Every structure is written in C-alpha cells, then in structure tokens.
C-alpha cells in the first residue's frame, strides 16, 4: 500500500472508531440519578480512546495542511463579540 492509501485507510479507521465510541456513549446515556450501565473505568477508557483518536486525526490534518482551528458552536451558547472603543468612536462620528 502506498503512503496515500495508508493515510486514507487510517483516516477512515479513526473516523469509524470515533463514531462508534460516540454512539456507544449516546446509546448508554442514562437520566441523572440513575446508575450508568457502563463502569466508571469503562467510561474513562472510552474518553481516553476518543482523546487519542481525535489527537491523531488533528495530527493528520496538520500534516496534510487541512487542519483548521474551528470549534463547534452550540446553538444555546452565547457568543461574545468584542470591539475597540476607538472603532466605536469612529462609527459614532
């Protein structure tokens, strides 16, 4: 296999593992106050695996030049915009 094929395979593998781990977390989510079906150690292992997968995906993106520093934006998050006082004064004059 060539380097491109290996990298493509690795990207697909990492994506599949990430999606599977996230699905397991979603499918086993319980309401507050109820006992979680997965042990605390298993939950920690899932978190650790996701961290490793995402770190490798980021490294591959940086190597290929496709990495962006974009973060997800949630609809319930308030965004804060900043501006300088000088810019405000310019718009008022």
Describe the protein.
- The protein has 93 residues and is mostly helical.
- It has one domain (1-93).
- The protein contains three helices and no strands.
- It has helices spanning 3-27, 40-64, 85-92.
What is the H-and-E element order?
Answer: HHH
Structural domains: how many: 1
Instruction: Describe the global form.
Output: flat
How many individual β-strands? 0
Rg, Å, rounded: 21 Å
Terminal CA distance reads 65 Å
Rounded average pLDDT: 84
**How big a fraction of the residues is strand?**
under 5%
Helix/strand layout:
Elements (H helix, E strand, L loop, with lengths): L2 H25 L12 H25 L20 H8 L1
List keywords for this structure.
93 residues, mainly alpha, 62% helix
The gist of it:
The protein is mainly α. It has helices spanning 3-27, 40-64, 85-92. The mean pLDDT is 84.
């Amino acid at each position: 296999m060539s380097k491109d094929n290996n990298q493509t395979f690795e990207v697909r593998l990492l994506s599949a593992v990430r999606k599977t781990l996230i699905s397991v977390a979603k499918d086993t989510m319980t309401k507050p106050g109820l006992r979680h079906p997965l042990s605390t150690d298993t939950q920690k292992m899932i978190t650790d695996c996701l961290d490793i997968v995402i770190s490798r995906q980021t490294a591959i993106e940086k190597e290929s030049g496709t990495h962006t520093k974009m973060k997800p934006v949630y609809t319930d998050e308030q965004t804060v915009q900043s501006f300088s006082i000088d810019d405000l004064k310019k718009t008022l004059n």
